[in-house]
Amino acid sequence: MNSPHHTVLVPGAAAPAGINTIKSLKMANFSGKVIGTDSDSLAAGAFLADLFSVMPEAKEKSLFVDKLFELVKAHRITVLMPSSGFDIYQYSKYRKELQEFGAYAVVSDIAVLEDCQDKMRTFQKLSPRFKVPFTTTESEKIPSLPIIAKPRFGKGSKDVMMIKNESDLRFVTRGYRDMIFQQYLPGTEYTVDVLSDLYKEPLFAVPRIRLQTKDGISTRGKIVHDHRIEEDCMNIAKTLGIRGPSCIQMKETEDGEPQLVEVNARLGGGTIFTTLAGANIPALIMDLVNGKKISIPKISEITVIRYFEEIVVHDHLERQSSPEPITHTG
């Protein structure tokens, strides 16, 4: 991949999706510049990117947007990657304005992001066409136990609970708000990375079995070929109207039937699994932005195990709290 004139902004540099995006670009010999951003000045991705900038949290909307446009103009950013579940909402909201400055945000439309963020809306929109588990917001409609309770607007595995009996159910209904209750699926769990083009046409899907997870992020996974799952996930992305990458979770019933669990319209925390299997989605996104025709990559069925890697931070960088971009040299 040769993109010498591109400057790419990779948000969420403290989280696996952002780190994986930077690593994937470097694995593809990306010759442009990568700017990582995060609200954490010690984000690991800061020490992998060419430049790094501390950002306000995305919920501080006006401060965040002002800083975003400041960065775009100062560094002539040309591509904004969808590697943060928070930043993409502002990227999408201001997509046209960003493009006027030459910055292409590879994100889905706001309505699509909201369809994916609200798990109840996800199931209401997709249930007429796809296999989905029983899902409700009303505890009195639960047909039987066990059942899964999870936040309607949650991320990862935070506050996801198995309800085994009436005591568990009372605990959840009294102590939590905006929860959904979903049929327990005991079978194999899959994460599927899907890439759609800039016109929302799905190109390919790469399923992997989630062998081990931590905080909702895969730490061990096996890439598999499954035509049924691949076709379903590409059709899900098309039905929702996703632009660019998406990360779709499925789980099998006790009869081995995969059903939809969750859709994220962005790069996932396990993107590197798919990169290592032969489909470097961040690099392919750059090809799409450059107007290149994408050839469907050959995917290898591999097992990937993740592990910690240490970064030594010099004191002068650790004390750096300026929001201006800084170069991290280790």
Briefly characterize the structure.
This protein has 330 residues and is an alpha/beta fold. 30% of the residues lie in helices and 24% in strands.
Structure, explained:
The protein is an alpha/beta fold. It folds into three domains: 7-107 and 309-318, Rossmann fold (3-Layer(aba) Sandwich); 113-117 and 186-305, D-amino Acid Aminotransferase, Chain A, domain 1, CATH 3.30.470.20; 134-183. It has eleven helices and 15 strands. The chain has helices spanning 16-27, 61-75, 87-93, 95-100, 110-117, 119-126, 166-175, 227-240, 271-277, 281-289, 315-318; strands at 7-10, 33-38, 51-54, 79-80, 104-105, 135-136, 147-151, 161-163, 179-183, 189-196, 202-214, 217-223, 245-252, 258-264, 303-305. The strands form three sheets. The protein has a six-stranded antiparallel sheet with strand order 14-13-10-11-12-15. Strands 3-2-1-4-5 form a five-stranded parallel sheet. Strand 11 (202-214) and strand 12 (217-223) form a beta hairpin. The longest helix is centred in the first third of the chain and has 15 residues, at 61-75. The chain is globular. The two termini are 26 Å apart.
SSE topology sketch:
Elements: E1 7-10, H1 16-27, E2 33-38, E3 51-54, H2 61-75, E4 79-80, H3 87-93, H4 95-100, E5 104-105, H5 110-117, H6 119-126, E6 135-136, E7 147-151, E8 161-163, H7 166-175, E9 179-183, E10 189-196, E11 202-214, E12 217-223, H8 227-240, E13 245-252, E14 258-264, H9 271-277, H10 281-289, E15 303-305, H11 315-318
Parallel strand pairs: 1-2, 1-4, 2-3, 4-5
Antiparallel strand pairs: 6-9, 7-8, 7-9, 10-11, 10-13, 11-12, 12-15, 13-14
Helix pairs in contact: 5-6
